[in-house]
Predict the 3D structure of the following.
Amino acid sequence: MTYNIAVAGAGGAVGRTLVRVLEERDFPVSRLVLLATSRTAGTGVDFRGEKLAIEPVRPEAFVGIDLAFFATPTEVSRGLVPEAVRQGAVVVDKSSAYREDPEVPLVVPEVNPEVLEGHRGVIANPNCSTIQLVVALSPLASLAPLKRVVVATYQSVSGTGREAVEELRLQTRAVLEGKQAVPQVYPRPIAFNLLPHIDAFSADGYTKEERKLVTETRKIMGRPDLAISATTVRVPVEVGHSEAVWVETERPVEPETYREALAQAPGVLVMDDPGRGVYPTPLDAAGRDEVLVGRIRRDPSVASGLVFWVVADNLRKGAATNAVQIAEELLTRGLL
Amino acid sequence: MTYNIAVAGAGGAVGRTLVRVLEERDFPVSRLVLLATSRTAGTGVDFRGEKLAIEPVRPEAFVGIDLAFFATPTEVSRGLVPEAVRQGAVVVDKSSAYREDPEVPLVVPEVNPEVLEGHRGVIANPNCSTIQLVVALSPLASLAPLKRVVVATYQSVSGTGREAVEELRLQTRAVLEGKQAVPQVYPRPIAFNLLPHIDAFSADGYTKEERKLVTETRKIMGRPDLAISATTVRVPVEVGHSEAVWVETERPVEPETYREALAQAPGVLVMDDPGRGVYPTPLDAAGRDEVLVGRIRRDPSVASGLVFWVVADNLRKGAATNAVQIAEELLTRGLL
């Protein structure tokens, strides 16, 4: 059995990675349609030895499509996802358009695949920083209920898109040549700098990115009451998001017990032997599908707490790979 | 009244900044002696329009010196600070050699200048990441007792020294040219990457840097029992350390109340209007003496908590400026 697949937003960083991951994982594709807004339409993307042209995204493009991946801005998803569903496609959407909708499953296959049952045509793919967090939290939650989570993120520029990667490179080159870094994508220079600012600010002082990390983690973990606080920061790294995480649990969990649970958990790679220089960095995560966890230690500042460090490729597990894994889970469960 | 001053470690990043800060703040210097190990001895440093040669550091160099600033590695301080004191100098030492010694005052002038009274010749200058943290915590502690502090750091390479700044630039240039980043100073590439690893690892999984942040904060704030946990991370930034901070207090403190207390506090610059793009970044802090604080907001994950973001120039307030401020305080109190 093979399927007609569409990728909307195929010209972007996540869209291109999606096409690569579909090929790598040998997804049962019969026809692959690549779609994008006018800006990238016309350029080609390699798939199974062929160069596929990106077509302009239009509602009619979804006729005959079984499964559509959306890697588009939220406004684009809001407009076109309902069209794709109307044409009969099941949609896995990367934008934040549907994530908080109680009728839409928000899925990380290692954590909550069961919520795919009864989907109504749209499945939301969580935010990159949320995905790697819940993959690391889930094995801990099965050892002891989580009481409170504190997260500081170190997020790479590819999370913003290809133009941000270009901006980092251009600004960095300029600074090395003694010139000024000219910000265009970000409000301030990102070369040799960092910004405690991802997405828009709300009146309460939090950014939308921080709010997403809180609300999405609660929804995926089925813990609407979970106490969680985040500060999200953009750093001058191209690929790979990192997170410093503090978790209080209802009962004490030994670092070694958590380490063993992680080692058994799907999609996790434990890199935790710091005395021998073994801990994850963004460069270790880039190009991989696992969530890397290291620096697991006791938190002596609370009765029952652990501290650890989580790194993942934000374009792959944080976006494309997770989307394709959702699709694979739909197939396994006969939900397509 | 003027004084004979020595700067040991004058060839390094902090030593050079010390000489600049002494000049900027018009410190009452009669004679300035610059000292360093053989590697940088012989090179010159500008001071008040003159190029002063760096002399090799030897015990005899401290004869006739009233005040000696040490910006040397811990082992060098351990060997030479007692010599300088024996020769009659008062020493302000930047290394970690004496910081935990209960007989040695560990001082941030905005926070605990009174402990300078009764010093025995050595005053310890705290670690860079500690200084900016306690300057931000102190006004909050005067509003409500602190219960627990959680800190994630984003520390620039200049904290390691000039050779690390050079390594970041060389590696960055190499990566932009499609070449390999070759690590020498750090165990892994730092260009477009980050390392959750500053200083050596202990058996409990924490680094020495993390331990310093805990023990020094407790000592300076006079709170040996303070619950505090840190993750310290090296980022590809040249100058300026940033910290994401969560504080639980015994009583609720409104963000606005803390903001007002900070605005009155010495050595602090509040940059907190995120809706208008006002928040501190390392580039804002570089070259300044204040500790910049922004992104102050309520922490809804605890009964009484605040979250904020603290940035400072690690070579200036985190090192040289704090040392010179200690010396100024010694003069004011007639303790030299």
Summary: Residues 316-332 of chain A form the longest helix (17 residues). Chain A touches chain B through 58 residues (CB under 8 Å). Chain A has two domains: 3-126+319-332, 130-313. Chain A has a mean pLDDT of 97.
